[in-house]
Backbone:
RNA sequence: GCCGAAGUGGCGGAAUUGGUAGACGCGCUGGAUUCAAAAUCCAGUUCACGCAAGUGAGUGCGGGUUCGAUUCCCGCCUUCGGUACCA
């Protein structure tokens, strides 16, 4: 028969399933290999062509590893808790569990359509109680542990309590937010509530006051990306920063290990750098400044303690606890107003708008501990409450932001470092000699830092300190669709963990998913669930998205275990993930949290490895083309009016007076290019789709279309309404989502898989374009035709292959091997094409060539490979074949064609026998007739011969 | 703003360690086949000048190192991802 992807793909999918070809056992003689994809959030718009890019790459690699003799774990599941399902529930009343299940079913169908080799027996869904039971369990483990810095390991909180009972906290070296020290007598005298509060300062999962984006009008907490310019993206309502008591995870305790262990894993330098910058380790000093005429001190952190004599003012975060206490009456209104202004600004805005300086003076002063100088205390948004101590000493002479602040508010600038010896040194460079700095004068910067740190300790007003930019992770969400906290509060408000035997704590049924009053999670509405016992309440917040995704890769190892998050035998066999494929958008979020959880489990002895993901490769995003029309903001004669982008460009209509209305890309001619446009047909399709624009006006450069008629200006019959083309995320709202099902329906899954790979390097982002797919489709037909004649008859022979045929095959084997190992799948596809073209022009139909080629192509195009494999007479799957190995002897060349260059530029080529010596090559090149005119009137200065590469003649 | 990545023909991209820039594919042009079309096959296709042989230019922009730079270094521009509650 002829190549019919629809028929053979269906057939083999069924066969694979019936024969459980992709089922993986936890016991095997073969070496293990774990290939993992970042699991998807099952969104309502379904899978688009961008999602499978990484899945195809990892599937190819998994199949390749299986053929190479590994026992490969290659699972898939769903990150199924999340905001979109909850918002959908609020809008439609459909329970998130229901819409999520529906979306998952859709995803599964779409994934199945692509011929992946997932072992679906191991599927996980984070929203499944049998899964989140263990998410809750791990949370409780975090709750019941603290971080011991001496052991550099997490330890049970019970050991800490025992220590408090005996000696208090004075000798404890732990990661903590506890500021006061207490004795064993103090501890034993504490009430339960006081003890709970103290322990919260040590637990790895703990409660503290943190800030959320609160929108009063919407009655909800907003994500940062739901806030634009201080107002909610939906509706444009004001948003304020509101303090709330929330759960956090003490990830900062693991900061040093998260940083150091990057050295042991095979991630790209870019990815490691992003993580290490996120952790942001800095060495500096903690310093205390007495307040002038006020009780207490200001604690600051600085990386440049040497610049203390240039500190002409202090800046504390507007939310800092001290602000209310130290602000003088005369400054109170200014400070209050400023605090209010900052409250309406997102953290991102505060960080990014560094050109405009804002702030307010508290009226208070503190004292320089070395010379007693009075230093004014200001507040400004550029100092963040959660970074360092939330207060800095400002040194305008040596810090860009401080200088701008000083200039704006007329504060003193005292030069303290003479950099004249260091030409080109920037303000950040730690070089130069100290001036105007009392006892530091004349020292080099690095020397001065040492000296001042010693002095701080001596005077008891500070010390050298390591600080991290990394902050503890806020773990509470005021949402319904997440894991409930297995935490109960008693009459005194003391937190108690639930018993493991009572887990999972399932979400209560609700029919209204809107937030409850007072910034409370919707769970607060489930009163019976919350007040489950007289005087006791449950935590009503739920866990964030990263909870379920921080450990899911461990669950795959033993997905059905009811006794543990995964059995120890399974974990000890699979160890860790050998290859993790996912997008860079998770660089610092998910990947950091998962590493943190893994290290915690490692400390507990529950996993054998210190790091979860040995090798990481990043897949780029496949973007969509967004096509939109300009619509005037004001209606014309009661009708919407669309205008050609050309007219906007020429200035007939101002862009400010228009909005962009996205249009289905299918309607557009030349979509994705600068001359994309809509013709009359497109406009009609658009109106069919959006009937509200039935009578709208469409003005083009050459005429106006309205009510079904085109009124041309110039006798033309075709309208050209130019549209705006942009590249961006594929999303439902942009009408540019391409469903892989449609592509598979037309070309087959094998073509789709190979085409996605052929588009370019996996790591690179690129816009989707179906146009080029024909080339890959043709390739597969060519591959088919190697074993079939024009009538579709099977024509494979047992003839001996020629030297040339063996060379083509073995070149291909070598390259595919090399390229898969370096994850260069696009060049693999090219190599296959070159091979098929070569064999076809030689009319090769020989088993000795086609059989190895079939195995080679199986990871990429598994369906056609399985069909060909069985046609070749095999009973078992091509998946259990043995991968071919190339033989160098077939690749040897008798002669090599060298480029002959003049001053590095190719001017001719010439073939020389492969065993020519350097001298022969030089002589031969110089003697070439076509080269002679390049030597005329010039001197040959040098001849560079690189064997097997090139010959370069330097003339001048 | 900060952190990270990318930029090569009309388009997607190749060039693995500093050594023939444009493999492979799309598109386009011409031809074969066909009553015609689709499909298929063959040839050509970086740009400029030239009938041609050929000559010159050329990997975002500006410099540098080198016999030789898409590749290394310095300074910019543009686009994309992240920026801690999108996932």
Residues:
């Amino acid at each position: 028969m002829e190549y019919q992807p629809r028929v053979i793909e269906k057939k083999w999918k069924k066969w694979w399933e019936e024969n459980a070809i992709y089922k993986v056992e936890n016991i095997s003689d073969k070496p293990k290999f774990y290939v993992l994809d970042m699991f998807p959030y099952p969104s309502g718009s379904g899978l688009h062509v961008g999602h499978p890019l990484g899945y195809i790459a990892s599937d190819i690699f998994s199949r390749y590893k299986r053929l190479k003799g590994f026992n490969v774990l290659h699972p898939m599941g769903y990150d199924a808790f999340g905001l979109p399902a909850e918002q959908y529930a609020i809008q439609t009343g459909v329970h998130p569990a229901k819409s999520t299940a529906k979306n998952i079913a859709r995803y599964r169908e779409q994934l199945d359509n692509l011929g992946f080799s997932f072992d679906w027996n191991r599927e996980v869904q984070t929203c499944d109680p049998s899964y989140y039971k263990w998410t809750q369990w791990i949370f409780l483990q975090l709750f019941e542990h603290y971080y011991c810095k001496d052991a550099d390991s997490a330890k049970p909180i019970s050991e800490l309590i025992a220590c408090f009972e005996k000696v208090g906290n004075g000798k404890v070296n732990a990661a903590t937010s506890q500021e006061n020290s207490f004795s064993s007598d103090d501890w034993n005298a504490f009430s339960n509530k006081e003890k709970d509060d103290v322990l919260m300062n040590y637990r790895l999962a703990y409660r503290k006051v943190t800030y959320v984006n609160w929108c009063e009008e919407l009655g909800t907490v907003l994500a940062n990306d739901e806030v634009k310019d201080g107002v909610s993206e939906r509706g444009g309502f004001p948003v304020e920063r509101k303090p709330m008591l929330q759960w956090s995870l003490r990830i900062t305790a693991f900061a040093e290990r998260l940083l150091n262990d990057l050295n042991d894993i095979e991630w790209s330098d870019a990815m490691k750098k992003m993580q290490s910058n996120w952790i942001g380790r800095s060495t500096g000093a903690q310093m205390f400044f007495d307040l002038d005429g006020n009780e207490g001190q200001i604690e600051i952190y600085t990386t440049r303690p040497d610049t203390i004599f240039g500190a002409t003012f202090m800046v504390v975060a507007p939310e800092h606890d001290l602000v209310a206490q130290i602000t003088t009456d005369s400054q109170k209104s200014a400070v209050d107003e400023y605090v209010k202004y900052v409250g309406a600004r997102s953290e991102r805005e505060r960080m990014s708008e560094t050109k405009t300086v804002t702030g307010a003076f508290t009226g208070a002063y503190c004292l320089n501990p070395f010379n007693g100088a009075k230093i004014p205390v200001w507040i400004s948004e550029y100092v963040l409450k959660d970074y360092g101590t939330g207060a800095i000493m400002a040194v305008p002479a040596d810090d860009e932001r401080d200088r701008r602040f000083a200039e704006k508010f007329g504060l003193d600038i005292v030069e303290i470092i003479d950099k004249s010896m260091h030409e080109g040194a920037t303000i950040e460079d730690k070089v130069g000699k100290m001036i105007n700095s009392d006892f530091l004068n004349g020292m080099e910067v690095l020397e001065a830092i040492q000296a001042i740190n010693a002095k701080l300790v001596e005077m008891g007003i500070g010390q050298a300190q390591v600080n991290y930019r990394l902050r503890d992770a806020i773990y509470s969400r005021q949402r319904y669709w997440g894991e409930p906290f297995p935490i109960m509060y008693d009459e005194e408000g003391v937190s108690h963990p639930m018993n493991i035997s009572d887990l999972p704590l399932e979400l209560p049924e609700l029919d209204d998913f809107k937030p409850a009053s007072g910034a409370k999670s919707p769970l607060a509405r489930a009163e019976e669930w919350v007040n489950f016992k007289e005087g006791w309440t449950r935590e009503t917040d739920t866990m964030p998205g990263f909870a379920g995704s921080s450990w899911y890769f461990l669950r795959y190892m033993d997905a059905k275990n009811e006794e543990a998050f995964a059995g120890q035998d399974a974990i000890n066999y699979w160890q860790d993930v050998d290859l993790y494929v996912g997008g860079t958008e998770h660089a610092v979020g998910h990947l950091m949290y998962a590493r943190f959880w893994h290290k915690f489990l490692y400390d507990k002895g529950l996993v054998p490895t210190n790091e979860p993901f040995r090798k990481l490769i990043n897949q780029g995003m496949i973007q969509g083309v967004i096509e939109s029309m300009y619509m005037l903001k004001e209606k014309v004669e009661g009708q919407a009016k669309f205008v050609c982008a050309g007219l906007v460009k020429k200035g007939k209509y101002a862009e400010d007076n228009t909005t962009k209305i996205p249009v289905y890309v299918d309607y557009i001619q030349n979509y994705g290019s600068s001359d994309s446009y809509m013709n009359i047909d497109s406009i009609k399709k658009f109106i069919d789709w959006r009937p509200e624009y039935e009578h709208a006006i469409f003005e083009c450069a050459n005429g106006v279309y309205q009510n079904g008629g085109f009124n041309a200006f110039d006798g033309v019959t075709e309208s050209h309404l130019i549209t705006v083309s942009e590249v961006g995320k594929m999303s439902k709202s942009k009408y540019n989502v391409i469903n892989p099902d449609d592509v598979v329906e037309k070309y087959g899954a094998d073509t789709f898989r190979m085409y996605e790979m052929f588009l370019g390097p996996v790591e690179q982002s690129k816009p989707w374009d179906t146009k080029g797919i024909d080339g890959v489709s043709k390739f597969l037909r060519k591959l088919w035709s190697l074993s079939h004649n024009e009538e579709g008859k099977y024509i494979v022979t047992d003839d001996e292959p020629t030297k040339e045929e063996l060379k083509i095959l073995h070149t291909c084997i070598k390259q595919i091997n090399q390229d898969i190992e370096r994850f260069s799948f696009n060049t693999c596809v090219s190599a296959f094409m070159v091979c098929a073209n070569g064999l076809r022009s030689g009319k090769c139909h020989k088993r000795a060539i086609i059989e190895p080629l079939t195995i080679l192509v199986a990871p990429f195009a598994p369906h056609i490979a399985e069909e060909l494999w069985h046609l070749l007479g095999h009973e078992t799957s091509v998946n259990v074949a043995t991968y071919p190995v190339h033989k160098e002897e077939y690749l040897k060349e008798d002669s090599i064609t060298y480029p002959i260059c003049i001053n590095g530029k190719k001017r001719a080529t010439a073939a020389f026998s492969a065993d020519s010596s350097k001298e022969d090559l030089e002589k031969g090149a110089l003697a070439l007739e076509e080269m002679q005119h390049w030597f005329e009137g010039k001197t040959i200065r040098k001849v560079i011969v690189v064997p097997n590469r090139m010959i370069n003649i330097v003339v001048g």
Observations:
- Residues 803-821 of chain A form the longest helix (19 residues).
- The longest strand of chain A covers residues 205-215.
